[in-house]
Amino acid sequence: MRKEQEGRLGRRRRRRRQKNRRTEEQKTEEQKTEEQKIGRAEEQRRTEKNREEQRRTEKKNTEAPRRTEKKNTEDRKNTEEQKGRTEEQKRRTEEHRRRLQRGSEEEETERRKRSRSRREVREGDEEGAGGQARGKKTEEVEEPKTEDRRTEDRRTEDRKSRRQKTRRTEEQKNRRQKNRRSEEQKNREEQRRTEKNREETEKKNTEAPRRTEKKNTEDRKNTEEQKGRTEEQKRRTEEHRRRLQRGSEEEETERRKRSRSRREGEWRGAGRGAGRRGVLTVRWVSGTQELGNLEELQRQGERPTLSTEILSPHLPF
């Protein structure tokens, strides 16, 4: 009785250990599956990131030469325009300087003429009679000389005014031209910026649908792949569960068969002496037929075969 109880306890412990082992294996498999899923998702993110980085690099390598060439063309154009404006300004400055120089030379010539005329008049006065006569002659000559000098001064002032007016007109004209060139340059810059922004906008509007479609295609593809992997994982998990279930059912069936066989077959010892002689008394149950005592069967010349289904848990086999 004690041995039978110990056998039942041993079977329970074995079943419990097997159940715990199956549970642990299932947990390990689920954890492994989850880690694989996380690893695949991380690998997919890294692949997508690398693909996006490669696309940006290719785009940069493709557009950089065009941008460089465009910038170099703009720089050359601006340099030529600036060089032309500088040459034009130098030419106009030189012309203005020459005009001023000619005006100052003419003015100096006129001044020298007037000085020589006055000197000649003075020398003529000094050569005449002295004293009062000379004073009278001087007074007589001074009147027309003063009138001539006024006339000459007016002419000088007029020429000076005309030169100043001409200079102011030229300066105003230069300022207007400079302002006009600055305005034209500003307009050209604004037009270039507008054109560049328009091109960028058109390019963006043209490429955006393609990028969106490509991204949607990639997302659909990734979704389908993920769905396929999920279905495959579910299928494998279901197969694993079924295998475990079949194993547990087979084990339970085997256990029930052994239990039923133990209930149907009984083993009894025939005493100490008989046990020492190796003689056992057996009730062999096969269906509803009782085969009888092993010793009697052996005397009758029969050799019954023991089945593992009816072995007692006491026996070593």
TrEMBL record:
Composition skew (Basic and acidic residues), residue ranges: 21-97, 136-160, 167-241
Region entry Disordered, spans: 1-279, 295-317
Point to the regions of Basic residues compositional bias.
10-20
**Name assigned to this protein:** Uncharacterized protein
Could you tell me which species this protein originates from? Answer: Pleurodeles waltl (Iberian ribbed newt)
